[in-house]
Write a structure and sequence with these properties.
- The complex is a heterodimer of chains A (about 180) and B (about 190).
- Chain A contains six helices and eight strands.
- Chain A has about 180 residues and is of the alpha/beta class.
- In chain A, the strands form two sheets. In chain A, strands 1, 2, 3, 4, 5 and 6 form a six-stranded parallel beta sheet that branches.
- The model of chain A has no long low-confidence stretch (mean pLDDT about 95).
- Chain B has six helices and six strands, in the order E-H-E-H-H-E-E-H-E-H-E-H.
- In chain B, helix 1 crosses helix 6.
- Classes of the chains: A alpha/beta (about 180), B alpha/beta (about 190).
- Chains A and B meet through helix 2, helix 4 and helix 5 of A and helix 2, strand 4, helix 4 and helix 5 of B.
C-alpha cells in the first residue's frame, strides 16, 4: 500500500527536478508516509514511444498509481512546458489515472520567465487525468539546485517553499483520511 | 511579388505512435498541396526514429538529421493526435531536442486530430505556444479533425481536403513573404 507516488519527468541523468523530487520523497518517508518513485528514465523507450499502454512496466506504474492517495509530478521546463518524455508516460496512463488523488506539480527551469509553465501547461494535463485537487505548484530555479554525487543542495528559500508545499500535501491527506473515516 | 533566391522546402512531422494515423494522412495531404505549389516536401514519422534517442538517452545520427532537416525547411507542418488534452508526448520529445529559437523565420502549420470536439483548443492552447517557444510563426489556420469526420483513413473527406489546401496556400504565402523580405541583421 502506497501513500504517495512521485513521478520524475526528466530525461536527463543529473536532473535537478528529479533531485528535488527525491528530496521530497525522502522528507515524506521521514514523516512516516509510504512512497514509491517512478522515473520516466527507467521505463523502456519502446513502451513510451510506441504507445504500449499494456506493457508490463506501464501497467505496473498504472497499478501503483492507482493505490496512491497523492502524486507529486516533477519536470524540467522545456519549450515553456513539461518535458515530452513525461508526456509520453502520462499519455499511456488510464484516462482517469489521477481520479480522486491529490497532486503536487513541481518544475525546475532556467529563469522566472518559465514559472507559468506549471499553470498553463502542466496543470491542464493533470486536470484532464482527473486529479481531485491540484495543489499550488512549486517552481525552482536551476541556479537554486546543485546536484552533487552524494547529495543535492537546495537554496534555503526554495527549500522552505518545498517544505510548505509538503506540509499542505500532508495536511490535505490527513484531512481527507479523517473525512473518509468519519463518513 | 516576392522574389526569393532559394526554393521553399517543407517538412511534415507525423507525431502519432500509430503507423497510419489520421494526423499523418492530413500532414501528408498538406505536403501534397504544397508540392502542387512548387514546394518540395518530406514527411518524417517520429516512430521510425530510434526510440531511445527520441527520449534523449543517447545521440543518434538519424535523429540529428531529422532535426536539421526540420530546422532548415522554410515550412514545417506538425501533426499530432490529441492525448490528455494536448499534443502527443512523442512530438514534444522530438521538439525538446531542438536548440533554442530553432524555428525562427520558419512558418508552421498545425494539424491535430481528436476523438471529439471538446479537445479543439489543444491547438491554440497547446501547439501554438509550443511553436512560439521555438520562435516559429504559426499559420492562423489550423486543422482540427474529429475521428467521426474521417472514418476511413484512406478516404479524406472533401471538407478536410479543402482545409488542407487552404492551409498549404497560407503557409506558402507566409513563407514566400518571409523569404522575399530583406531582413535587418538580428
Amino acid at each position: 500500500m502506497v501513500d504517495v507516488i512521485t513521478i520524475a519527468g526528466s530525461p536527463s541523468a543529473n536532473s535537478r527536478s528529479t533531485a528535488v523530487l527525491e528530496h521530497l520523497r525522502h522528507s515524506l518517508e521521514q514523516r512516516g508516509l509510504r512512497t514509491w518513485g517512478i522515473s520516466v528514465r527507467d521505463l523502456p523507450p519502446e513502451d513510451l514511444i510506441y504507445g504500449r499502454f499494456d506493457s508490463p512496466e506501464v501497467t505496473r506504474c498504472a497499478a501503483l498509481l492507482n493505490q496512491a492517495r497523492a502524486v507529486i509530478v516533477a519536470t524540467p521546463v522545456y519549450q515553456a512546458a513539461y518535458s515530452g518524455v513525461l508526456k509520453t508516460l502520462l499519455d499511456l496512463l488510464p484516462q482517469q489515472a489521477l481520479n480522486g488523488k491529490l497532486v503536487l506539480p513541481i518544475a525546475t527551469g532556467g529563469s522566472l520567465a518559465h514559472v507559468l509553465a506549471i499553470d498553463y501547461a502542466l496543470r491542464p494535463v493533470l486536470a484532464t487525468l482527473g486529479a481531485r485537487h491540484i495543489l499550488q505548484g512549486v517552481f525552482i530555479l536551476d541556479s537554486h539546485v546543485q546536484v552533487g554525487a552524494q547529495a543535492t543542495s537546495i537554496d534555503p528559500v526554495a527549500m522552505q517553499r518545498l517544505d510548505d508545499a509538503l506540509r499542505s500535501l500532508i495536511d490535505e491527506l490527513i484531512g481527507a483520511e479523517a473525512i473518509a473515516r468519519a463518513g | 511579388m516576392a522574389n526569393h533566391q532559394t526554393a521553399l522546402g517543407a517538412i511534415g512531422i507525423a507525431g502519432s505512435p500509430s503507423a497510419n494515423s489520421r494526423s499523418r494522412v492530413l500532414v501528408a495531404r498538406v505536403l501534397a498541396e504544397l508540392s502542387a505549389l512548387g514546394v518540395e516536401g518530406r514527411l518524417i514519422d517520429l516512430v521510425e526514429l530510434p526510440a531511445d534517442a527520441l527520449l534523449a538517452r543517447r545521440q543518434d545520427e538519424t535523429v540529428a538529421e531529422a532535426i536539421q532537416r526540420t530546422t532548415r525547411a522554410q515550412i514545417v507542418v506538425l501533426g499530432t493526435p490529441v492525448y490528455r488534452a494536448s499534443y502527443a508526448g512523442q512530438l514534444k520529445a522530438f521538439l525538446d531536442l531542438f536548440p533554442q529559437d530553432a524555428l525562427r523565420d520558419r512558418v508552421v502549420g498545425l494539424v491535430a486530430t481528436g476523438a471529439g470536439p471538446i479537445h479543439a483548443l489543444a491547438i491554440d492552447h497547446g501547439l501554438r505556444p509550443l511553436v512560439a517557444s521555438l520562435r516559429g510563426l504559426t499559420a492562423a489556420r489550423a486543422i482540427y479533425a474529429v475521428d467521426a469526420q474521417f472514418p476511413d483513413k484512406n478516404n479524406l473527406p472533401q471538407e478536410l481536403a479543402q482545409q488542407a489546401r487552404a492551409l498549404a496556400e497560407e503557409l506558402y504565402a507566409l513563407a514566400s513573404g518571409l523569404a522575399g523580405v530583406d531582413r535587418p541583421e538580428a
